[in-house]
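Sample intake sheet
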Amino acid sequence: MTTDDCGSLRHRAVSTHKISAMKSSVRFLFCLLVASVMLSSTVCAQRRDKGSLRARINAIIKASDAKVGVGLMGIDFNDSLLVNGSARFPMQSVYKFPLALAVLHAVDQGTFSLAQQIHIPKSELDTNTWSPLVVDYPAQDINISLAELIRYTVGKSDNNGCDALFRLMGGTAAVETYIHNKAGVRGIAIAATERQMHSDPNTMYTNWCQPVAMLQLLKLFYDGRLLSKSSTEFLMDCMTRTENPSDRIKGLLPATAIVAHKTGTSGTDKKGFNGATNDVGIITLADGRHLAIVVYVSDYKGDVKKGERVIAQISRLAWDYYGSGH
């Protein structure tokens, strides 16, 4: 073989290598392009789905002729949706959830203990308000453990229990300070007791919350960043075993769905006006993930059932959307 033949072979080998490398590059770029198109299509599909979810929620709100705030947020996955998320809504008994957080924080700090007995004189019991305590302890002073008092207040939404906890904490301002400064959640106001709201219904508007703020509080709570593990589990149990109305978040969900929640209700006045029908909580989805949900229905003509239907319909939309893997 001549020198020229060797050079020719080397040239062909190099050329073949270059062609092979170019083909590999083209294949890589093609695969990258296909992946990019598929990712773009997936993102667009997700945006369309989210847009459809928002549109269906807005349709429910429009039909209700009420002021409605909605907040949805994945607790252990990254997704969220807000409708009127920064508007202020009266909480009514929803505020018993942040109240319980403040009390249990004090328990964790050693100020109180769940086993300690709380004395509630008969003179401090309002017999004209919602109070299973008055039914269970008729016409008498009440001595009850702090743990049971919290269960009555959160699980049964007892108004006398609520005000007893406010007195224990030193008033509504102390609870609001805990939420603002310790929990770091600002979009919430706690100013009036249950007795004050009962005396003047308009006072309920001083206890307001933004849906986005309640989402933040629910996530901080579930993540264990507010309370000890034992206190977090205790309050989750209270909210999961709640005897509060089940026709709201749970209303259209499967019977087996697990929901830890707290309701709030103003009731309907003599003119047919309803100030607040609310529910906030944490849904365990079918795949084990957790979704924080807030639905406030405020300032509408109609009974409580009307507001409950709005909450149930929106909750079912959320269950179907996030339960499908979004």
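Comment: The first strand starts at residue 67 and ends at 74. Residues 1-49 form one domain.
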